[in-house]
Amino acid sequence: MGRLIGRPAAAFGAGVVTHLVGDLLPHRDFDLALETLLLGGTLLALAASEGVHSPAFLGALGGVAPDVEHGLALLGLMDDDQKWFPTHTGRLPHGCRIRSLANQVAIGAIALLVLASVRGSDT
Ligand SMILES: [Zn+2]
User: Fold this and answer.
1) Cα(120) to centroid of ligand 1, in Å?
2) What is the pTM of this model?
3) Residue-wise pLDDT tens digits, 84-112
4) Burial 44-62 (b: 16+ CB within 10 A, else e)
């Protein structure tokens, strides 16, 4: 999404919006260790391929930024009632938890197709 948007600040904001949409959809959350590993690997790959100042990387940061408050709560640095992101506070519904990976695989495949098409149009 960030690569499509093309402007760093707007890409970061679009990332936050995609997080909101993702939270609204039924999805499966993994344990913290796996999520951290997947996140770290994805961010490292994006940083290496796109650069840390790229809209793609900044869009990804925007996409994960809302969950920083979950990490702060897990570390005891924030109380659950201090969270502000609407799908984390109940102001907007959080998508039901499912066991299937189908949604994540479909969203990942769509994201890769979009990235491939944007890359193809750059050359
Ligand atoms: Zn979230």
Assistant:
1) 31
2) 0.82
3) 999 999 999 988 888 888 877 888 888 78
4) eebbeebeeebbbbbbbbb
CA 19 to ligand 1 center in whole angstroms:
6
| Cα–Cα distance measured from residue 12 to residue 65, given in angstroms and rounded to the nearest whole number | 9
Q: Angle at CA 109, nearest 5°, toward 63 and 62?
A: 5
Using the mean position of ligand 1's atoms as its centre, give its distance from the Cα of residue 119 in Å: 28
What does the pLDDT look like over 8-59, one tens digit per residue? 999 999 999 999 998 998 888 888 889 889 999 999 999 999 999 999 999 9
> Domain span at residue 53?
2-122
Q: Could you give the CA distance from residue 113 to residue 21 in angstroms, rounded to a whole number? A: 19
Number of domains in the chain: 1
* Pair of tokens at residue 10: 């707007």
